[in-house]
Amino acid sequence: MADPAASAPPPRHRYPVLVAWQARMPITQAGRALQDCAPMSTRISSESFPVDLHRTGYGRTTWSPAASAANWLVGAATAAFTAPALPLLSLQDHPRSSPKQARMLMSPRKPWVTDCYLWPNERSWTTATGLVATHRNGGGVDWHGRCLAALPGGRKKLQRNRSIIANRLGRWGLGERRSLWIEASRNASLDDDAAVDLVRRRVAVGLARLGLPGKAVQRLTGARIAQPTPEVEDAMRAKFPPPPFRQIASSRPPAPPCWELSEDDVLRAARSFPKGSAPGPSGLRGDFLLQVFGEDGADHKSGVSLLAALVLRLANGRAPRGMQPYLGGAKGTALAKTNKQTGRADVRPICTGEVFLRAALPALREHLQPHQLAVGIPAGAEVMPHLLPRWRGHFCGDTGRVCLAYDQSNAHNVVDRHAFLSRMQEVAPGLSRWLEYIYPTNKPSNVFYRDTIILSAAGGQQGCPLMTACHAVVQRMLLESLGLVAPPAGTALTLPRLEPPVQLDIAPCLADDGFLGGASGEVLRALKHLLAVMPQVGLRFSSLQLVAAAGPHHRVNFDPFLALGCSVNGDGDIEVLKSPIGTDAFCQSYSQGLVDKQLGVLDAVAAIPDAQVGFYLLKYSCNASRLHHLSWTTPLAHCEAGLLAFDAGMRAAFQRLVGCSLDSTSWRQATLPLRCGGLGLRPAAAVADAAYLGSRVATAARCTALWPSGPGGADLDRWVASAVARCNLRLHDAGLPSSLRPVITNGLQKSAVTKQLDQAALAQWKADVTPDDVCRLHTGAATGARTLWELPPRLTTTSPMRNSPLQ
């Protein structure tokens, strides 16, 4: 196929912009064609992208890089892309007269509104539009971009959506342009105004009503977006360093074609997107793909075929070269954080790229096993917090063994492009052309940060769904250089190998975190070697923490480690992936610190004026974040006080929402699951043992693979035994058979243990109340009675159920 960038310009046409993109012209040629048509232009800046308003005849034609990319994405998947130059969107007097072809349509930014719409037929596209081209009687095209709100919904909302769109189209046609742009800018700036608690609360309520409780709590209490100051912009630019010279001069063999992608593969990938996933620069959301195609794709088979053709074209690197900075770019967001080393204010760059090709690859998973836990590993973040205590417990009497925990600095943005492109071509050849397109070694991609463009020329982009795998293959190269794993046969890129190979007990890693455990001399050899070879692949350590397996009884000389920049804790206390490991006092203190932060979440939820929304967030989200991870990875003895404090805060927050105080019996009923007639406000301390046992079951096989010479598979350690004993005691006190055994089997899965504990709590509650209370409980547990409590608090379904009925 001919190079798109080398295609000859088409003959002059009355739709020069559309012709330019369909003829696969570079951006510069398309821009000149547009300028020929619109010599008078006024440049303005939108919230995320610079936009040009071009005067054409009686109206204005709007165009932006993101809209250009979206326009091209449509044409790339249709037959019109390879046909003679024709207007891509040729609308006559009404949108219903548009041709039957795909349309990518942009809308104003709202956190809970689908931003980009890809319609496979002419009927469905009228339900939402944000970037519309319309003819005028005098000729020319009007582009209405970022000022036509698109509301999600089905048939019931169709008429409302059409009315809103018709109203805004009418306002645009009458020349009311400025107010529409102001409205679009105000909608788009919700993220920037998130520092204002009132706005954060309003956004959280909207997300909750869409059935996104996790995102609602995150928006309400999560990391705040850094203020738009020159210092923050400088910090963001510092996260994207210039490329090293070796990268610019690097070259690789031609990438092989992409793997064949069936329509079922594409539909399965679309279903894998988490609900509410953020869009990339084009605005296309994974949620919208499911809205268009349905869960099985049967309703819109033509749309699935269209998307499969588009994904295959992108995966083969057949997009125009001039579009690379935009299709390979991302929307950048600066989240405020504190630098762990200096304690000063810093930013965390989050880049949101396109949704295409976000699929787990079996070939990558097999290549990265067993050490890397970040790619395709269920419960991967829970493995290291379980593995290290087992290792320390086994070697608690060895005074010469140490564990070195490390963290890499800005890893995804600085890892060597040539290194991960070369290795990915060997282990995942089907992705090579797409990776070569979005991460070329000879030119940068664009990161759209507010009103500026930051060039990303080295490494990848933190937030790109493929960068976790790309960084992981480079991380494996480091393990190969230590001699822990063998390099793949015939690989063309390796690092200097340590001779003799290092002898370590364990060396797991999750993305840019990991630790090395073994004899102090071997760990020291490994550290010195890594410090020497990591700069060759663009990586460096941001923190190094050393603890001894024997704790204060060690006989390790820490001086060589201190000379290499390590921090040392002689008591053996350490935090691994937000989980405390060490003495009881350290673990209790760390857990209490996490709980104090979560109590702030409860206070924010309790302050929501809508009690239905507040109750929904308490039930589904408030104990499912870091605190939930703590109960998965930390024995109850190390976090019980903190969990009890959180449960007391949960009770206080619920009472504040309903405006009344609950006695002990009423609160115990509220903590029962919905299926038992309760309200589903589970106490964190009550389910902590079940969560810990379930996590041990989920991670047992991976721990064994990481440490084959470790203790046997029975896992009869004191933490499992004590958790099982407490669960059996609760079952016995309720008069139920205590059948749990302290062996890691499927019988200890969280769902199975939790169900038994729920029955025990229900039996004990019934024993303490009157028959009338039990009768009311059975009424609440009847089939269909709890349906309303399970629904998101939408205005259309809960308008008669406001705060008073909840009380």
Automatic annotation (TrEMBL):
Protein name, entry field: Uncharacterized protein
